Please model this.
Amino acid sequence: MQGKLIVIEGIDGSGKATQAELLTQYLQKIGKNAMKITFPDYDSPACGAVKMYLDGEFGKKPDDVNAYAAGTLYAVDRFASYKTNWGQAYENGAIIIADRYVTSNAVHQMAKMFQDEWDNYLDWLYDFEYNKIGLPRPDSVIYLNIDEDLSCDLIEKRAQNKDIHETDREFMQRSREAAKYAAKHDCWFTINCTDGENLLPREEITNLIIKALELC
Model:
């Protein structure tokens, strides 16, 4: 019995890891078989090229690696994770909560392109990862909407060794524009995570996510 795949998406610093963990805890508390996964999977050997990219070994700026090349690196990491970590649980009926997924290529890689190229990239991305590679499509994608300035401030407070995405504020702004486009294009559930100035309490954001999923 195939399970469900729920993706928590957003730009860096938007609280994806926290909300994926809280949602998983909530589902387990009400008796569901729920499992959290995270991308990139830094503990996997398949993530080696992704780490090299984020550490700046292929270029010091995100744009130094084109969207298709970088997207392929992340796809390999996801395929390995599916085959060795969570695929069997998913096929046996578990609810998988993903902190990032295929959708993250839309957020971060489209930021490297002109907007008139975005639809073609999305067509390529979804065909490549879902059809060609065979990764499962999400049942729901929750997009955590947060201003890039607040996101950068949160990253500054938490990160000791920032990657090439997190150190480039202008790239973060482009990523947010790409994320908003993808959210509308693919009907993601958008959760506004601030009151206009400040981040909402994390439990309040979790409750908004749960209410959105009840609509699925």
Notes: The chain has one domain: 4-214.
